[in-house]
Write a structure and sequence with these properties.
The chain is α/β, with parallel strands linked by helices. It has 3 helices and 4 strands. A 4-stranded parallel β-sheet has the order 1-4-2-3, covered by helices on one side.
Length: about 110
């Protein structure tokens, strides 16, 4: 499997005392991600699966990549990418996709 790792686009600041999990992409973040995703299309990236964190900023990013690649594949949420789990759990969650040739995961830092 070739694993492509993509961090979500530029997101809103977390509201003071608010929930970081609800942050969405900014207009600039969406524009930059559309441009980056168009570059992936030009490079001929052919993905079998796009897996995304369920958080809005990551799922929006995954949707923009999918759209740039002609709407295929459609992003699938993978809870282990939400950023609050360890690497070993993420690897276990990816195991069902091991036979895919090209998998992109969209998540968070680190």
């Amino acid at each position: 499997m070739m694993l492509y790792v993509l961090r979500h686009g530029v997101a809103e600041e977390a509201p003071q005392g608010g929930d970081d999990r609800v942050r969405r992409l900014t207009p600039r973040g969406r524009a930059r991600m559309r441009a980056g995703a168009a570059g992936l299309r030009v490079l001929g990236l052919d993905l079998d699966v796009i897996l995304t964190s369920p958080l809005p900023r990551a799922s929006e990013t995954a949707a923009l990549v999918s759209a740039a690649l002609g709407g295929r594949p459609q992003p699938q949420e993978l809870a282990a990418l939400a950023g609050d789990v360890g690497p070993a759990e993420v690897l276990r969650a990816l195991k069902p996709y091991a036979r895919q040739d090209a998998v992109m995961i969209v998540g968070h830092e680190p």
